[in-house]
Amino acid sequence: MDIPPQVDPEIIDYYSETFDEATRLSATADGRLELVRTQELLRRHLPAAPAAVLDVGGGPGAHAAWLAEDGYAVHVIDPVARHIDQARAIPGVTAELGDARHLPAGDGVYDAVLVLGPLYHLLDRADRLQALSEAKRLARPGGLVAAAAINRYASLFEHTATTWLERERVHDAVRDILATGRHDPGRKGFTAAYFHTGPELAEELRTAGLADVTVYGVEGPTWSLLKAAEQHTGESLVDSPMFGAALAAARLAEPYPDLLAAGSHLLAVARA
Ligand SMILES: C[S@@+](CC[C@H](N)C(=O)[O-])C[C@H]1O[C@@H](n2cnc3c(N)ncnc32)[C@H](O)[C@@H]1O
User: Fold this and answer.
1) pLDDT given at position 188
2) 3 — pLDDT class (breaks 50, 70, 90)
3) Does residue 191 sit within a domain?
4) What is the pLDDT of residues 198-212, one digit of tens each?
5) What pLDDT was estimated at residue 2?
6) Is the bond preceding residue 141 a cis peptide, omega within 30 degrees?
7) Ligand 1 atom closest to Cα of residue 148
8) Ligand 1 pocket member 80 (CB < 6 A)
9) 58 CB within 6 A, ligand 1
10) What is the rounded CA–CA span in Å between residue 161 and residue 237?
């Protein structure tokens, strides 16, 4: 019998009780940078609206909302009931509970499949490959598959910006992420998570059978300066000159793969 995979309860608890994912991309300047850059990169690769988009791990629907406004028919799948309720409240968006490794739809029914989050939370390569294979299966032949990852080196920059790197617990967690890519279950601050290098993300998409893979840096190499400035001044830098400069830097950095290592998120786009 085909037994659906179980999402780790730590992940469900984190997004249900501890962390408000609904404001992550609007409350801070680095969150806003992630939203604006993800939007502009996806708009470059999406088929023209109207088209059917599956947003796997779509959370409360931050991306589903603007995709629906752009004219796409968006369906969100996420394992967190709170997220499903929030996504369903967005006009034009449908949503259901589910797991990226075992998607509830037939082959080739979507023009584009987004996997912006599940790969962070799948520690085992076999699980990540299964999630990517499912995305490929549900996309029509030649359709877009886009997958996000957290950059392997992002925690070093983030915890320097916040100065938390001085805490022994954080220092040791960052050391282990740099060495292994893993933030193991039970460690504080975030759920169990996997952090990719750019070449590793590209390799996983290719191994899952996807073609024409390109990996972009989302926030560019100066996101952690923006985060540090916002955190230490206590002022919102959303729409500030510093935000504008960080956005310009992300665009300038795009053609230079070496600079992927300084970013926060990676976005891979490919064809099914
Ligand atoms: C950081 S949030 C990203 C949300 C949104 N896609 C975005 O990019 O802003 C990660 C999301 O992945 C979801 N997730 C975690 N494990 C998953 C799995 N196995 N299958 C599908 N989604 C999963 C979480 O519930 C959460 O909504």
Assistant:
1) 80
2) low
3) yes
4) 999 999 999 999 999
5) 55
6) no
7) 8
8) yes
9) yes
10) 15
Q: How far apart are CA 123 and CA 133, in angstroms?
A: 16
| CA 250 to centroid of ligand 1, rounded, Å | 24
Give me the phi and psi of 27, to 5 degrees please: -80, -25
Q: Which CATH number characterizes residue 162's domain?
A: 3.40.50.150
Domain count, the chain: 1
* 80/103 Cα distance (integer angstroms): 15
User: Is residue 3 a part of any domain in this protein?
Assistant: no
Domain that holds residue 84: 9-271
d(CA 155, CA 15): 20
Asked if residue 67 belongs to a domain, the reply is: yes
Residue the block writes with tokens 């070496």: 258
CA nearest ligand 1 atom 2, residue:
117
Of 37, 78, 120, the one to substitute when testing ligand 1's pocket (max ligand atoms within 8 A of C-beta) is 78
Chain centre distance of CA 210: 18
With contact defined as beta carbons under 8 Å apart, do 183 and 248 qualify? no
The Cα 60–Cα 76 span in angstroms is 9
Place of tokens 């730590």: 10
From 18, 121, 190, 194, the mutation candidate for ligand 1 (largest count of ligand atoms within 8 A of CB) is 121
**Residue 233 CA to ligand 1 centre (angstroms):** 30
Beta carbons of 163 and 181 less than 8 angstroms apart: no
- Answer yes or no: is 2 within a domain: no
79, 93, 117, 131, 251 from 67: Cα distances, Å: 21, 9, 17, 22, 21
Atom of ligand 1 nearest to the CA of 58: 6
